[in-house]
Amino acid sequence: MMSLRYLPLWITAALLCLLFGIGGWQFDGFASLAVVSNLFSDNAFLLIVALGMTLVIISGGIDLSVGAVIALSGVATGLLISQYQWHPLTAFALIVPAAALFGALMGVLIHVYKLQPFIVTLAGMFLARGLATTLSEESIAIDHSFYDAIAEFGFALPGGGWVGASTMIFMVLLVLVIMLMHYSRFGACVYAIGGNSQSAQLMGVPVASTTIAIYALSSVLAALAGIVFTFYTFSGYALAGVGMELDAIAAVVIGGTLLTGGSGFVIGTVLGVLLMGVIQTYIIFDGSLSSWWTKIVIGLLLFGFIVLQKVLSRRTALTTVAGSTAHG
Amino acid sequence: MTTPSLVLELKQVCKHFPGVKALQNVDLRLFAGEVHALLGENGAGKSTLIKVMTGALAKSSGDIYFNGQQCHFASPAAAQRAGISTVYQEVNLLPNLSVAQNLFLGHEPRRFGLIQHKKMQQQAQQLLLRFKLNIDVTAPLAQYSVAVQQLIAIARGVAMSAKVLVLDEPTASLDSSEVQMLFDVMRQLREQGVAIVFITHFLEQVYQISDRITVLRNGSKVGEYLTADLPRSQLIEAMLGKELQQLTQQQAATAVAKQAEPLLVLQQISVKGSLSDISLTVAKGQAVGLAGLLGSGRTEVCRAVYGVDVLSGGEIQFGGKTLTLQQPADAIKAGIALCPEERKTEGIIGPLSIRENIMLALQARRGWWRYLPVKQQQQLAAFYIDKLQIATPDADKPIEQLSGGNQQKVILARWLAINPQLLILDEPTRGIDIGAHAEIVLLIKSLCQQGMSLLVTSSELEELVAFAGKVVVLRDRQKVTELSGDNMTAQHIMQAIAEG
Ligand SMILES: Nc1ncnc2c1ncn2[C@@H]1O[C@H](COP(=O)(O)OP(=O)(O)OP(=O)(O)O)[C@@H](O)[C@H]1O
Ligand SMILES: [Mg+2]
């Protein structure tokens, strides 16, 4: 039974290893620490938003605003540093709480007015994207000694690998989110709400504050992803992160989390992002394939995983019947 | 005994839903170390009262005093913090979480703020041993039967009950040994000074365990009594507002269909791992009762006849022909219908009206393109609302707004309405008030007279005897005996169940 629950996770992990193996066998330099560390640093921002998306989806919701929040926090970072001469850390100290407030507001709307998360976060997406564009239509270059220091911060791995600030930030966030979801009462409440929010309420789960916190956290993680994205691009741009919410959702699903909520693992999402990254790397190494093949393969994978989820939940229903036979 | 101290008091509590006055000026007093039975017909307002008391619903007016101080619980969580734990009537656990997580949600053992999963699982295991459940606590709750889930819900309530424990129909899906286990635990808690609210439709249980009774009728309090001072007949009168129709006066009609031809014949059927060598015959127009403890194989026989479980041996004949059942669809095609025991979790489509919920199975059977005229639907719905005494102002009310017992009646009506050749009813009267019990017995009889055959499992032997032409007793997944005629008494059935 346990194995059934972990099955999607194992499949994703196996696919990841398989593709990595094939790549390593086909191309020189594919199976190297350099490629692995690049996977993390190139996808750090996606990994970070996907962590938040996992939380939201496990609670039975969805957050479409994260891509726009990435853009908004990037633009705000750029503006505060380049135009208003703030120190980056001061800028972050303003942006992160502001994002929390933004997410919390969406959470309030969702909980208090019983609105669909889809609609509320869609509105949030337009709002954040619009605001970012209003602040600056142009990309804002960031030139600050702090950013140079960040870019150099890190340590080398044997074989040309490099663990930079983005990867480290992600690792820290990963540990925190795993602790939160799998070892804290808050996490238990998130799963409970995803299972059945009415029952959760009757069992004494603080549904209101938990829902609000979930969306606040998702926005905070998106804002952090936006900041990490500026480390990567040295600029803030209002059109950054277009469609990234969908990439994050895809990664979460491929990582074995049920879209209906109540079930999934944080680590699965990481595997999902990495799998998407490896596909991309493979296509780059191959050279002859168009980069759109990444999308095609991810599309096929998504189909596969959704079918798998259906089959598995059917299976579980069957074992339930068998379970009741055992007793009654 | 010292004079008991008042723990929780409700004064003049009212609760109005749009168009319904569910509670009107109700008082309730809970004393430490007492089991307080809260009784009334389906829809009387019992569940609403405890929801208002525990913060799950906001009251319209009235006051609540806890330990002598006026208080207000904004949510079940707030009531829990004050030491009031509740097992609500609806299944209120989370199927996606493990058993251990369900037991400890919100109270997980922690160290440095982190949940100690191992410790939680050990504690869960221990807690369940109190209810003689030795199951894998790391498995998702959804894997277990309704009875086990019910026990788990109770165990959760018990573990958290510091001052008050509220149990809304906890015994609805338990068998008698499990009920006794629960009562043992309740007695222990009572010794420790916990005040317990106990809602049930089983009057024997009321007299077995409760110290004090409050009766509700149509949302108003009829009275508060000491159990010892209230004879059963008076209790029933208080609940119904009239005397109960006697079951015995209907006994005369039993002797129908003596020599009728057989409709369903089971020849030594076996199902791997659950049944062995069961033979029985159901004649046309006959109701056959299946008796036995939980786990005796009653439900399994129903499932085999309905094609849920595939036979590993033996043969099923239906209407003179051999019937090979691979899936329920085969049984349905042959003219067999099953009203499952787990009605609480299955089959209620909340936002749809009572009428639509009743029509569901019938319409599905007719095919969706042959739409039943609304007029006819209304007639059918009105018929069953009247017959089963479903407490509702009209048939267009969403079913989710009915009380638990009335929802069950609607589901029962759904299966009765399709009028199959053979209807299998698994515990048709669970959670249904005593007033409606008699009506259901009558209804089953009149269905038989119209030529329908029924296979009915029930733990209520008196009832089984009242409508069945024959009772088959099962034990340990085998048939023990078959009783009919004068031999068929509750006493004899009980003996057969116990001794085999
Ligand atoms: N959400 C709701 N909206 C409208 N009416 C409701 C709602 N919940 C309950 N009611 C009505 O309140 C009345 C009391 O219902 P309640 O559930 O308290 O009955 P009960 O005594 O628990 O019955 P049962 O024995 O069937 O569980 C019923 O008439 C029911 O239809
Ligand atoms: Mg009720």
UniProtKB/TrEMBL annotation, chain A:
The family database entries (InterPro entries) matched by this protein are listed as:
ABC_transp_permease (IPR001851)
Membrane-spanning regions, if any? 7-27, 39-58, 65-84, 90-110, 117-135, 155-181, 202-231, 237-258, 265-285, 291-308
- Cross-referenced CDD domains: TM_PBP1_transp_AraH_like
Question: What's the main place this protein lives?
Answer: membrane
Q: Which Pfam families match?
A: BPD_transp_2
The protein's name is Monosaccharide ABC transporter membrane protein, CUT2 family
The text of the family note is:
Belongs to the binding-protein-dependent transport system permease family. AraH/RbsC subfamily.
UniProtKB/TrEMBL annotation, chain B:
- SUPFAM superfamilies linked to this entry: P-loop containing nucleoside triphosphate hydrolases
**The ABC transporter domain covers which part of the protein?**
8-243, 258-497
Protein origin, superkingdom? Bacteria
Q: Does the keyword Nucleotide-binding apply?
A: yes
Note the Pfam families from the entry.
Answer: ABC_tran
Extract the InterPro entries matched here. Answer: AAA+_ATPase, ABC_carbohydrate_import_ATPase, ABC_transporter-like_ATP-bd, ABC_transporter-like_CS, P-loop_NTPase
SMART domains attached here? AAA (SM00382)
Q: Which UniProt keywords apply?
A: ATP-binding, Cell membrane, Membrane, Nucleotide-binding, Repeat, Sugar transport, Translocase, Transport
* Example of a GO MF term: ATP hydrolysis activity
**What are the GO cellular component annotations?**
plasma membrane
The residue stretches assigned to a coiled coil in this entry are none
Quote the protein name from its UniProt record.
Monosaccharide ABC transporter ATP-binding protein, CUT2 family
